[in-house]
């Protein structure tokens, strides 16, 4: 249980910078989720914190201790790998005790610590089983128990749920979170599953190509995405490319004039709109931005319909229409009027 601070952290492999000047501060007892596309540097960041990969530059502190140059076993981090990495020829109890033996914890102390860790993950009584005699979810919990037995100050979880089926994921998600809260463990979890990230995190870090794009709560990331990448990565957005022609004026590539809230951006830009901010049919009456569009594609998802529309035959936009009684089924080719308020759209400089 400690604050964890990562500053100006960098990792280079030859010419390639895979972690680029990362700054992250995790509060005592906070559950932080690191989220980003494959290859963006999540595992590398986590392993530098755990001490398995030496940073090219930067500093890592846990509590008051600068651990940047300490070996893994002196950092008091518990790391759970994506693949569990249990020893197949060792029983559950031996697997959990392994780290304690390596740390020369006296035998008399090992037994109670193993038992306590297994009790925490609800595997009391599984001591003598072997990994092959356990389900995926149980193996995952053994891996967690192994980390907890070390009484870590910081818990690091690298995609701990990715090998589990959908139903088990939901259960283990809740178990991990409850345990983390109960123990007050400062935690960083890596995932590329957005829903998992949103449901579990106190705060999220969105990474892309080695860089932190934004750190914030779910609401901050969704309602005030820092850039176009975050707007597309967290939740869904419709994007219109174009140009800011004057303060509060945006012209789409197709030549449509759109009123938007004034922003500092000028020149080439992208307008991002959350689907729920787009009004449809008569609800669009009186809105400053109101256009007739053609339905390109419609998917029935039960509680809602996802509808792709085209503005001027080219720009595609996503609508989400709540499924209400009496709703007429949208069909490709139909015309539908959409509209949005000036402040509904967020304007970002165009990204390459
Ligand atoms: N030892 C290495 N030498 C060279 N490049 C490496 C090495 N290890 C990792 N990389 C590169 O660093 C980048 C980041 O890798 P990392 O494993 O941190 O990604 P990740 O965000 O965890 O991705 P994923 O979601 O797929 O697990 C990748 O482009 C990877 O190819
Ligand atoms: Mg990874």
Automatic annotation (TrEMBL):
Gene Ontology MF, one: ATP hydrolysis activity
Major subcellular location class: membrane
Enzyme type, top EC level: translocase
Entries under Pfam families matching the protein: ABC_tran, TOBE_2
Protein location: Cell inner membrane
Membrane topology: Peripheral membrane protein
ABC transporter domain location: 4-234
Domain of life where this protein originates: Bacteria
UniProt keyword Translocase, yes or no: yes
Gene3D superfamilies the UniProt entry points to: 2.40.50.100, P-loop containing nucleotide triphosphate hydrolases
Keyword annotations of the record: ATP-binding, Cell membrane, Membrane, Nucleotide-binding, Translocase, Transport
E.C. numbers: 7.6.2.11
GO cellular component: ATP-binding cassette (ABC) transporter complex
UniProt entry tagged with the keyword Transport: yes
Catalytic activity: ATP + H2O + polyamine-[polyamine-binding protein]Side 1 = ADP + phosphate + polyamineSide 2 + [polyamine-binding protein]Side 1
Subunit structure: The complex is composed of two ATP-binding proteins (PotA), two transmembrane proteins (PotB and PotC) and a solute-binding protein (PotD).
The protein's role, per its UniProt record: Part of the ABC transporter complex PotABCD involved in spermidine/putrescine import. Responsible for energy coupling to the transport system.
UniProt record similarity statement: Belongs to the ABC transporter superfamily. Spermidine/putrescine importer (TC 3.A.1.11.1) family.
Entry protein name: Spermidine/putrescine import ATP-binding protein PotA
Organism of derivation: Bosea spartocytisi
The gene coding this protein: potA
